[in-house]
Design goal:
Elements: H1 2-8, H2 14-28, E1 36-39, H3 50-61, H4 72-82, H5 85-94, H6 101-116, H7 122-133, E2 137-145, H8 146-157, E3 164-167, E4 169-172, E5 175-180, H9 188-198, E6 204-207, H10 213-217, E7 222-227, H11 236-249, E8 252-255
Parallel strand pairs: 1-2, 1-6, 2-3, 6-7, 7-8
Antiparallel strand pairs: 4-5
Helix pairs in contact: 4-5, 6-8
Length: 256
């Protein structure tokens, strides 16, 4: 196993890589318990926010039936900055009420393949692969719309849709509704959903912003804080806030 993990975990800083290898090696032989690794998606699995990018793509395509008719993006973005982020994340699913779930999944798959696959962090892909090979269940917990995250998680990381927790609405007669399916995975919502949906605290967790800290606090052994945004990008300050916590708590910190 040592050679396999060492060969796979390229692209990490030396100290981070060594700690990850030691962690995976230590747990690879443990067969008698459930092993969970939980990842945030946006800024952690890939560069940027896939939910927001998909929404803008949908607006261009004219496939969001219930989005505000005027300045839909500005209306959404203002809510994330000045209002209730969780509510805004829910809108991106709710505004698709009436859309066939099969169509939405197809759009998400097409969007990821054509627009987003290039944003995937290769080293994180190698980490996910090594963890899965060592017997970990890989879960993704994100505030972005669940079907969109699932399309990317499955295509790029081999994570099944059943192990993706995102903002979602209920489906009736094959169509999306405007009814929120469960609490939105944002801040403490992420931690609560780990308990409610996964049912076991993760041994390992990874995220990139201050708003992921509640998810990261659920990890019982090892945490990776990712820095993936430059100074002019919207989440830069939030990543730096998380980095401060990571340094204080002696978590791993990795920039991409």
């Amino acid at each position: 196993m040592t050679w396999f993990v060492s060969a796979k975990l390229q692209g990490f800083d030396p100290d981070v890589r060594k700690t990850l290898i030691d962690f995976i090696e230590r747990h690879s032989a443990m067969k008698d318990r459930r092993k969970i690794a939980a990842f945030d998606a946006d800024g952690t699995l890939w560069r940027g926010d896939i939910g927001e990018a998909f929404f803008r793509w949908q607006l261009e395509q004219g496939t969001v039936p219930h989005a505000p008719k005027k300045d839909a993006w500005d209306y959404y973005f203002k809510e994330t900055q000045e209002g209730d982020c969780a509510k805004a994340f829910g809108w991106l699913a709710q505004w698709n009420a009436g859309v066939l779930e099969a169509d939405f999944k197809n759009w998400a798959t097409r969007f990821f393949r054509e627009q987003w696959a290039k944003n995937v962090f290769g080293p994180v892909g190698s980490l996910v692969n090594a963890l899965a090979t060592a017997g970990f269940e890989i879960w993704v917990v994100s505030g972005s719309t669940e079907w969109v995250v699932a399309a990317g998680a499955e295509a790029a990381f081999g994570v099944s849709a059943e192990r993706v927790i995102g903002s979602a609405v209920t489906v009736e007669n094959g169509r999306l509704t405007d009814k929120i399916a469960r609490r939105i995975p944002y801040r403490d919502g992420k931690a609560l959903l780990v308990d409610e949906v996964i049912g076991t605290r993760p041994l390992f967790a990874a995220g990139n912003t201050y708003w992921d800290k509640e998810l990261l606090f659920t990890a019982t052994e090892l945490v990776l804080a990712v820095n993936s945004e430059s100074e002019h990008e919207v989440n830069f300050a939030s990543e730096q806030r998380l980095k401060e916590i990571a340094v204080e708590r002696k978590w791993l910190v990795q920039g991409f």
